[in-house]
Amino acid sequence: MAEIATPPRLLPSGDSAVTVEFGRSIDETSNRRVLALDGALAREPVEGIVETVPTYRSLLVHYDPLKIRFDPLREKLIALATLPSPAAQQSRRWRIPVVYGGEHGIDLEDVANSLQTTPDEIVARHLRGDYRVAMIGFTPGWSYLSGLDPRLEMPRRREPRLLTPAGTISIGGVQAGIQCLPGPSGWHLLGRTAVRTYQLKRNPVFLLEPGDRVSFVAVDAHTFAEQERAAEGGEWIADLVLS
Amino acid sequence: MTRLVVTAIGPASSVQDGGRRGFQRYGLTPGGAMDPLALAAANTLLGNDPFAAAVEIGPLGAAFTVCDGAVRLALTGASRAADIAGRPVALDSSMIVKEGETLTLGTARDGCFSYLALEGGLRGTPLFGSLSVNARAGLGSPYPRPLQAGDELSASTAVVGPENRIELAKRADGPIRVIMGPQNDEFPEDAIALFLSASWTVSAVSDRMGYRLEGPPLVHRHGHNIVSDGTVNGSIQVPGNGQPIVLMPDRGTSGGYPKIATVISADLGRLAQTPPGQRVGFQAVNLADAHAELKALADLIRTLPDRLRPADGSGVNVEALQDANLAGIAVSAIDPGTWQNERGESS
Prior knowledge:
The complex is a heterodimer. In chain A, 23% of the residues lie in helices and 29% in strands. Chain A contains five helices and 14 strands. Chain B is of the alpha+beta class. Chain B has two domains: 3-168, no CATH class; 176-301, Cyclophilin-like (Cyclophilin, Beta Barrel). Chain B has helices at residues 36-45, 189-197, 265-272, 287-302, 318-323, 327-333, 336-340, and strands at 3-9, 14-16, 54-57, 62-67, 71-79, 82-84, 87-88, 93-97, 102-105, 110-118, 152-154, 164-166, 176-180, 200-202, 210-214, 229-230, 235-237, 245-247, 254-255, 259-263, 279-280, 282-284, 308-310. Chain B has an eight-stranded mixed sheet with strand order 21-14-15-18-17-20-13-22. In chain B, strands 7-6-9-4-1-11 form a six-stranded antiparallel sheet, with no helix packed on it. In chain B, strands 2-3-10-5-8 form a five-stranded antiparallel sheet. In chain B, 49% of the residues are buried. Chains A and B meet through strand 2, strand 3 and strand 4 of A and strand 16, strand 19, strand 20 and helix 4 of B.
């Protein structure tokens, strides 16, 4: 069924990039259109487009203004963005092991208290989620997932932590995340994974792509420690299934 | 093996080139030189590709000692004192540093970053098409971190020959030009007017990720959170405290603060060379003007070789002297100390 697509807003981001904005909120429709336009530009590259960066609700298109002028670029992007949505693409699904709670997920108890339930129930809700990589950004491999159980929505921490560990599995607002490198975060830390979404010693260096599906499986601390050693050596750890 | 040994170096000094493109979709920021024109000038002085890797030197001083052969270098960017074994050398020129000699650089007097290029290019193993250091991502070559004393850079052995200087017009001052948006509609009209009229002070906590500006707080229309979207070099985001941050080449690839405006490409290097404590203002321009400025900068970088001049400044035919086996005299004839004063610079 061809849906009638409203044209996106095209917002210049300086003189060498344009934001193609499909919506203002985190919603499935906008993100699908972002990924559809990104896919269309990957299949039929436009001379002068340097790179594209998909995010929740917009596609940032970096271009070389010495190779393509803004007006033809805008027309091309609007034409591609208003094509009927293609049938859902077959997407890859990753199964990502997580050790929850304790030293690995220091906010699990607090999240359970805030949401007036038990840590086990928080883990169960997190495990039931059917996630999609909506975008990867901020730092290498930081994967922002859509599909969080609405019963896990809660505001971000008032004071962000300056350092959270590699492989942190966290939630913030309506989002779930897989953080690769150690770094600051204002999200609630539920657990950790040994999966490195960015690992220089591995081929591919970047494991996840925007649009990939993700589900989590729980592992114990011993398994996590073993997986960490294997990941250090460049193993994927995550299981890839086509769905 | 001829090499340049880092004997002293301040923070914020790292190997940088034109950066890496194509991986922002995975969260990998482009990195690259803070002042691309100065990088290109340094490389042009040595016949290198304009965006070949060089040492980007932060505001504090540095010293480099040459081992096992002579090395030809070129220094551009921030104004600062420089000498080889006590002999003053000039900026915007190539120079030979002989075995055992030390090139000593003072702190930046005007500007923030200098570029020290090596004849034949700085050697390393590119990752994602670049040698640029991104310490957080473990990227950069030959060292995936800022430079430290004791680091060694392998170099091509240079022979004594004519040196070049490059004539660069003084950079325009005046406001930093911006294109409004992409989220200027998140700000009321009076906040936009204030952003464009205020005098902003570059904060001391500025770095390669972003330049923080201090001035009158800018208010948002709907609060300071937007759904995270992509950033570019020059994005001016305004967090909850209303104090703008101009994102620089080591920025996060996405961010959740509204971006009131974006610095045009042609003015980014000039902003990068604005030291903490100095003031800047902003002026809105349209896309056509920004593209004209970008083309002018690209044309300037492409034609930098036309701006090379013999460094002796006195019409001495250095090659003829060399041919006459008077290389030693040629070296003294091109002693930069003799023409540094002609250019009106203190030595």
